[in-house]
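Write out the bound-state structure for GDP-alpha-D-glucose.
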Amino acid sequence: MSRLVVVSNRVGPLRGAARAGGLAVALADALQRRRGLWFGWSGELAESPAVRARTQTTAGVTRATLDLTQAELDDYYNGFANRCLWPLFHYRLDLAAFDRRFYDGYQRVNRRFAQTLAPLLHDDDLVWVHDYHLLPFAETLREMGAQQKLGFFLHIPFPVRELLTALPSADRLVRALMAYDLIGFQTEGDLQAFRDYVLREAGGIIDGETLRAYGRKVIARAFPIGIDTAQFAQMARSEDARRDAERLKAAIFNRAQIIGVDRLDYTKGLPERFLAYQKLLEDYPDAHGQVSFLQIAPTSRGDVPEYVHIREELETLAGHINGRFAQFDWTPLRYINRAITRRQLAGLYRMSHIGFVTPLRDGMNLVAKEYVAAQDPVDPGVLVLSRFAGCARQMTAALIVNPYDVAGVAEALQTARHMAVEERRERHAELMRGLIENDVSRWCDDFLGVLDRVGPHAPGDAGPSA
Ligand code: GDG
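---
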């Protein structure tokens, strides 16, 4: 079996409690099976650009990390990745900053990543690169002569052609992407958008899953990511998780609990979600004193200005809703701007009657899957899910809503509040079947299985526009 090399912006922990996230566990397990290497930014800053990676090997798996300078971080991570690609790929053209300095910094850091990794690679390694921070990584690695099989997975949506063409570097980035051997997307829709760009903007040729353009050839396919379903369900049932949940139960006096959990990000539709909850309270007075909405939204990307704005907006909205509807013994909305442990999260999901997941655009959305996995199958809660989450295509037994339609979402909340237990059980069982079948280890095996099988890399494999 070839050695696996994972490349991502940050390197996840290989063991211990911090490893608890489903993706980190799945990748760490795959790395352990293949005695692999995980490479990326250390999370540390350096005075001058790093030239060599720091490596540390534990139980056969190596972590190789490099430090970045503040300027590199500002242009590559805060700049191009999070102020240009992130908003654009989430359909927020209005927020995208097209700054050439950001793009140059992004290319530079991708090159540094490639230069630092190259000496650590073996000839028959399988290299699996993750996410929008590293779109041009394969191209730079190939320029240094790398012949290994290189796979890429995009965790966020791929935008439709009309949007992508607004990006001045779109063509260069798609061309760079074509230097991979395999590109994985979250959904068929994302895959379709990529194929459309290759066909119509790059004059490419499509033959089944094989795409040819710019003199390059790639396999492109959808691999919807899953969660560690069985493990998460077990954690939600555990005694520890139950203790935390009991505390919450006492705090809300057994009212129907609605839960939202998101990184504080403008793509997650939080202001619209708060407004929909407000609409529920406006339109359905029977909900007064009977529901309690808990939104957990730990701050992320605090160095990016748009994230400061969304935080202020939410604080104002939460204050407004509570000011308007609260009674001396009822707080309608609790908004927590801090992270909690994964175990606490599992317990809170389990005791919540409604999982409220309404992003405006999301690659997949793992919270929706975790909420379902955590439920008690005998008395499960209801998932209210945005049609714009990648997982909406798989999770059709949820109550699917349009997050922009505030009144429609309020209606769905009301339907969820009154749904009979038989219907809740049926919907939950159907959702669970999908989650068990398509868990994160299957996702990992599927991607690596296809990457393993792609033919040897053929440099200069001539395409139509070579
Ligand atoms: C990207 C794509 C895609 C959240 N708050 C806390 C906490 N979380 C955990 C959740 C979940 C994870 O963070 C968030 O995952 P999502 O999938 O919802 O969203 P992104 O972070 O935007 O992830 C997304 C994903 O990549 C995977 O491909 O699904 O579309 O945007 O696991 O539980 N965990 C803890 N405390 C918190 O307060 N412990």
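---
Confidence is low (pLDDT under 50) at residues 461-466.
The pocket of GDP-alpha-D-glucose is lined by residues 21, 23, 155-156, 225, 261, 263, 296, 298, 339-342, 345, 362-367, 370, 390 (CB under 6 Å).
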